[in-house]
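EI: anyone free to look at a 181-residue chain?
SC: sure, send it
EI:
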Amino acid sequence: MNTTQIDTEKHWFAMRDLKRANALLPAYKQLSEAGMEVFTPMATSISVKDGKRIRIEAPVTHDLLFVHESRANLDPIVAKTPTLQYRFKKGGKQGEPITIPNEEMTKFIAAVKATNNPKFYSADEISSVMCGHNIRMVGGVLNGYEGKLQTVRGSKTKRLIITLSALMAVSVNIDNEFIEV
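SC: here you go
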């Protein structure tokens, strides 16, 4: 008899959507329609449809999404949806999905929503050349946030790079007056 206990507490799970990028019902829409809290980093692009230019909002990384749900509710959906999978920790216990602490995920989502033009990076794209000092924001919309300072040569704009559990990072515009090194 299997005595494994299914976790009924909600966590932020990193998930993979193996559907094509142009699928009509990607996993983030499917899970949202099922009443689950889902976050997928989105970017706006311009496309031409029927000769007209239109704005399209699409996932930055089509196979990455974050779901705030319990294993008890999520496991049955994953079991019946072959294109939906948990992302697993490298070097962790066998079958242990990646979970992101609630506070870290909440801050990441708020930082993305706080700026008009977030720039997303995969974890391996972040290099020491891109990043400067470790900084903390004191005041403003991002008060209390910590990350790396990104400066772009030839630009007066400064950006804060916030990393999410070695999965991805976002850089957002910041005001000089709120930077504490």
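EI: The CA atoms of residues 19 and 83 lie 6 Å apart.
SC: 👍
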